[in-house]
Amino acid sequence: MQIRSSTRxxxxxxxxxxxxxxxxxxxxxxxFVQYEGVExxxxxxxxxxxxxxxxxxxxxxxxxxxxxxGYRGRFDGDYHLGLSLWTQDYPRADRFFSQAVRRLTRIQxxxxxxxxxLEAGDDVYNWPWLYAVQVGEWGITNxxxxxxxxxxxxxxxxxxxxxxxxxxxxxxxxxMTRVFPDRTIIDLQSxxxxxxxxxxxxxxxxxPGAAHLRQGYKGDASGFGQHWRAIxxxxxxxxxxxxxxxxxxxAWEYADDPHYPEKFTTFATQLGxxxxxxxxxx
Length: 282
Hints:
Elements: H1 7-20, E1 59-61, H2 92-104, E2 114-116, E3 129-133, H3 142-153, E4 157-163, H4 165-179, E5 186-187, E6 227-232, E7 238-244, H5 248-253, H6 262-281
Parallel strand pairs: 1-2, 1-3, 3-4, 4-7
Antiparallel strand pairs: 5-6, 6-7
Helix pairs in contact: 1-6, 3-4
């Protein structure tokens, strides 16, 4: 896999993309808060420069759990406080990917993530790139779906990751139908630009979570096989990038773990960077 010769142009477009997203900037961002996670405690060490702002920040979506939440019975408190499904891989995955953005692009990324609540006033519009994990077990409300729709139509980008099997697909699809009842989910083709923005990804991989390396996929047989899907706006721009039956977040989270295969981390990082550059330049 090679870096495209147009990478420098993409970086310049990225900076321009921030300027073009004026409707997404209110300059009244909520402060950084580190939450209790299902895998890591709230005192997970912060980098020395965590207070330094950046021109891009990894924004992670918090959401209420759905009927099939895998943590039901273990973590049943107020999801706004952490210790909920949305904190899977958090904050290690977020910080590794932010570090990769710093090292591999010219984007000045903040070293720590930002957790975003769709119903916290206009805060979501400060963050033009939004990520959510395990969206096959979420339970977003109708009001949250309405806000997410508005955010995306204003130019936002949503990366939906780490859900597997037909059951979780149906849960995710039902929610996105409430977000966009007038739009269909499509399968991305290998020639689509999202695979060729920064890195030439002519081949893709199914990325298993660390707990599923031996089998290579999660759940029943319908969890086998990678699917890269999207929802487009009226101009054909990807608004929602969907990694179904893959766990990019785990590949970021375990990037420095010698037991997790490097090929998955490399691919997940390259695809994530492609989607970020695409989001900021389209």
